Amino acid sequence: MKKRSQPVSKKRRSAPREAASDGHLKVAISEKEIRRRVRELAKQIDHDYQGKTLLIVGVLENCLMFMVDLLRGLTIPVAYSFIYSQMQDSEFGLVAMREITYLPPVNLGGRDVLLVDGVLQSGVTLDYLCRTLLAQRPASLRTAALLDKSDERKVDVPVDYAGFKISGKFLVGYGLGYQDQYRTLPHLANLVGRQTGTRRAAARI
Predict the structure, then answer these.
(1) What are the contacts of 37-43 at 24+ separation with CB within 8 A?
(2) Domain regions of the chain by residue span
């Protein structure tokens, strides 16, 4: 007598590597859109710096994926470096103070410099970095950001090359994270169904 074959249970698909346990991700800007926009920015930078050697300085951690893809798209001679900015709040008497430092130091004298960050929000940090770097007397200094939240600006600092202008959105992916998660997503996504508290995430102010 033949044994009746038992149905093979299908294995459940494992949750995506970057899925949130108490929320979920909704794609806001697709990988295709990001790649197309980065190519456009690279083409514009190539044109603006034709005949020059450009030094690209990335502000960690948010800029990493954006800057790497930007570098790959450029055809002009390029050198690059990374810096990390730190903010420390303190009080002097009754006056609240914020100290911003960056490291390691970079020699920019006489060079054409492009400062790259992942998110330009209030502009406080980027404004400080620009003023500090300009003190070294570079030949030129411009800025680039993957996301430009101009409606949240507190300091009037311009961005010369903006990937996407957004407002009122908290995005993760493509180098931007929340609590050290989601940075490796190839696209940008809204993090919904989760309380982000002070909205620190990877968005640098």
Answers:
(1) 37/163, 37/164, 38/66, 38/69, 38/70, 38/73, 38/163, 39/73, 41/70, 41/73, 41/144, 41/161, 41/163, 42/70, 42/72, 42/73, 42/74, 43/73
(2) 31-166
Which are the contacts of 132, defined by CB distance < 8 A and separation ≥ 6?
A: 102
8 A C-beta contact, residue 26 and residue 192: yes
pTM of the model: 0.77
| CATH architecture, domain 31-166 | 3-Layer(aba) Sandwich (3.40)
Q: Which tens digits make up the pLDDT trace of 85-129? A: 776 676 666 666 666 667 677 889 999 999 999 998 888 888 888
